[in-house]
Amino acid sequence: MSTSQPDASRRPSDDRATPDELLHVAPPEAAPDDLVLASGRDITPSALAWAERKLASEGRAALDKLLP
Length: 68
What we know:
The structure is a single chain. By secondary structure, this protein is an all-alpha fold. Helix content is 43%, strand content 0%. It contains four helices and no strands. The chain has helices at 20-23, 32-38, 45-58, 61-64. Helix 2 crosses helix 3 (45-58). The longest helix is centred in the last third of the chain and has 14 residues, at 45-58. It starts with 19 loop residues before the first helix and ends with a helix.
């Protein structure tokens, strides 16, 4: 008898976690717009100026602090 549900062997397993190298894919060089978007802000001239100052003082760590 045919069922409308997909074969259980073909469904992805819920017990597998996504590897870290696929989750953390931030670019090696952070741009001001990357930092603005990671902070949840809109890209505006003042937000970009904030990001440029933050990157100048903290470097890549400014983006790393915002990413999971």
